[in-house]
Amino acid sequence: VQLQAFGGGLVQAGGSLRLSCAASGRTFSLYVMGWFRQAPGKEREFVAAINTNGGSTPYADSVKGRFTISRDNAKNMVYLQMSSLEPEDTAVYYCVARRGSLIHFTTREYEFWGQGTKVTVSS
């Protein structure tokens, strides 16, 4: 599967942004989807994931209550709605996918990665 993330940009602290990820292929519904991010000088970290039917959506503690992940299997799309953004959310955000039903939280478990979209939150 090929992934293309978009929707990043510059936003003020407290603002909102929605990231989108378009996936190619006819078996999108068989993939766990997720988002990771990498801030300057830091390691890539898990943000959120969603299982194949959308029934399970774990989040990193740092974004819980502010970010919402969702998917539309009919459109091969996954979204990350980000609210109450903080300067600490500044990072390149990557859309990821893995075949199967189990959600994982480490980078090595996801074999497909999008190119990343940059989010900058100004204070």
Keywords:
4-stranded antiparallel beta sheet; mainly beta; 123 residues; 6-stranded mixed beta sheet
What's a quick, concise take on this entry?
This protein has 123 residues and is mainly beta. Helix content is 0%, strand content 47%.
Model description:
This protein has 123 residues and is mostly beta strands. Helix content is 0%, strand content 47%. It is built from no helices and ten strands. It has strands at 3-6, 9-12, 17-23, 31-38, 45-50, 67-72, 77-82, 91-99, 112-113, 117-122. Strands 2, 4, 5, 8, 9 and 10 form a six-stranded mixed beta sheet that branches. The protein has a four-stranded antiparallel beta sheet with strand order 1-3-7-6, with no helix packed on it. Strand 6 and strand 7 (77-82) form a beta hairpin. The radius of gyration is 13 Å and the shape is globular. It starts with a strand and ends with a strand. The model has no long low-confidence stretch (mean pLDDT 96).
